[in-house]
Amino acid sequence: MAKKQILLNAFNMNCVGHINHGLWTHPRDNSVDYNTLGYWTELAKTLERGLFDGLFIADIIGVYDVYQQSIDLTAREAIQLPVNDPLLLVPAMAAVTQHLGFGVTSNLSYEPPYLFARRMSTLDHLTAGRAGWNIVTGYLDSGARAMGLQAQDAHDQRYDRADDYLELLYKLWEGSWEDEAVRRDKAARVFADVSRIHRISHQGPFYQLDGYHLCEPSRQRTPVLFQAGSSDRGQQFAARHAEGIFIAAQDKDKTRQLVADIRRQAVAAGRRAEDVKIFIGIAAVVGQTQAEAQEKFDDYWQYASAEAGLAHFASSIGVDFSRYGLDDPIEYGGSNAIQSAAKTAAANQLTRRKLLERFRLGSRYPTLVGDAASVADELESWVNEVGVDGFNLSRTVTPESYEDFIDLVIPELQNRGSYKTAYAEGSLRHKLFAEGDRLPARHAAAGYRPR
Question: Which keywords appear in this protein's UniProt record, sorted alphabetically (predicted)?
Answer without folding.
Answer: Flavoprotein, FMN, Monooxygenase, Oxidoreductase
